[in-house]
Amino acid sequence: MTNRTILISVAAMLSIAMGLRQSLGLFLQPLTRDLSLQVADFTIAVAVQNVTWGLLQPIAGALVVRLGFRRLMTAGAACYVLGLVVLATARGAVGVTVGAGVLIGAALACTASAMALAVAARAVPARARSTVLGVVTAAGSLGSVLAAPLGQILSEDLGWRAGVWGFVALACTMLPAAWLAGRIDRVPLPPRETGAPADASARVALRAAFANSSFLIMAGAYFVCGMQLIFLATHLPSYLTLCGMDPMLSAKALAVIAAFNVVGSLFFGWAGARWSKQALLGGLYIARSIVLAVYFAAPPTPLGTLVFAACMGFLWLGVGPLISGAVVEMFGLRWQAMIQGVAFMSHQIGSFLGALGPGLLFDMTGTYDLAWKLGVGLGLAAGTLQLVFAAPSPPPMRRPPRLEAAPGAD
User: Fold this and answer.
1) Over the Cα atoms of the chain, what is R_g?
2) 118 or 197, which is more confident?
3) Which residue of 31, 103, 233, 320 is 20 to 30 Å from 112, comparing CA positions?
């Protein structure tokens, strides 16, 4: 029962953290008009958020070994609430950047995918790990189904500040979820599943990661993943508004992405237990780039936008269980959060460019054409490299039977 509580709680925490973060783009147009800001001012805040998140993620992962998951995740949830309060009361670019940028970025380093999947990986036996990581990622995507419509309705009826205050209320639910998920600190680590020494230091673990070519290629491709996803999360609502679409279509599209991400996360978690995780990543990046190209090549329609959202949702966060599982296979569980954080730093540098770059290009050209074309080209290149240099996953059933018992099971 303890492990089930941990998994449910960490999925709830991840769901709210990612759902709120992915829905912030809903406030781009009303916020910038109200505060007399440019699109680039808002995207700078989102870019700062992603850089802060990326830089702090490996640090948070290393601190887990010393401080434990409970302290870090609970502090991160509190920081998330504070960041949204600052955003809701912002009077200019500085407040927007501090709230939506620095504070929410720091909060995500302690509450989002890398930390949540590190918790989930410890709570289950090796044979079920990839599938469970997919389940937690899928459950974690449901936050947008609630956050996006709530934010849009409150924003339309009462103004964008009311929408952000609604997000504050949702963020408060992360506090008990993070506390309960912190029970993972009582679960002992299982025997090592790789050849690395169980008592390796952070320096030794980092040295091993940077000497591993498969890890470096995976981290490099992760850069493009971040660039594509944050481009959509930040700029799709603005793009649809510029094309004359109903503002509610943006919220519907984000909700559809979240709903179909459940299916995609479950599929890629299941597939990662059977085939090479890195090869699956390459195929995912290529498929996502093709979907982007097809959608942006023609003017949007309501039906086409929802179909596009469904396809992108299926390919959205399936990378989570694949990368988390690959890191465990290569380096084990003890330093997983830190090493995965290093890969995620690459993802967030891409997210920085995916948020800021299109905003700057739009301010200069008045269109998103160059932005989406660059995203598609880089995505195809990254996916191809990931496929060519993919390392095969070890067959899970070959692991010794003694490693199959769930650690800390009641």
Assistant:
1) 20
2) 118
3) 31
Q: Which domains does the chain have, with CATH numbers?
A: 2-185+202-395 (1.20.1250.20)
In angstroms, rounded to a whole number, what is the distance separating the alpha carbons of residues 82 and 37?
22
Which residue's entry shows tokens 């508004």? 241
Q: How many C-beta neighbours within 10 Å does residue 59 have?
A: 12
Contacts of 142 (CB under 8 A, 6+ apart): 15, 19, 258, 259, 262
Within 10 A of 402 (CB to CB), how many other CB atoms are there? 8
Range name among 99-113, 164-178, 188-202, 289-303 with the lowest pLDDT average: 188-202
- Given a cut of 90, is residue 174 above it in pLDDT? yes
- pLDDT above 50 (res 285): yes
Least confident range of 112-126, 193-207, 311-325, 327-341: 193-207
pLDDT over 70 at 1, yes or no: no
Write the CA distances from 294 to 190, 368, 402, integer angstroms.
46, 15, 49
- Predicted TM-score (pTM) of the model is 0.72
Measured distance CA(171)–CA(155) in Å, rounded: 17
The closest alpha carbon to 327, from 198, 221, 194, 207, belongs to: 194
**Under a CB-based contact definition with an 8 Å cutoff, are residues 324 and 337 in contact?**
no
Nearest CA to 69 out of 206, 177, 171, 167 is that of: 177
Averaged pLDDT for residues 115-120: 86
Tokens of 284: 């995912």
Could you give the C-alpha distances from 47 to 28, 150, 239, 258, 291, in angstroms and in order?
13, 24, 18, 22, 24
SS3 content of the chain, % helix, strand, coil (to 5): 80, 0, 20
DSSP 402: G
CB 133: neighbour CB atoms within 10 A? Answer: 29
Query: Burial, 336: exposed, middle or buried (Cβ in 10 Å; 0-12, 13-18, 19+)?
Result: buried
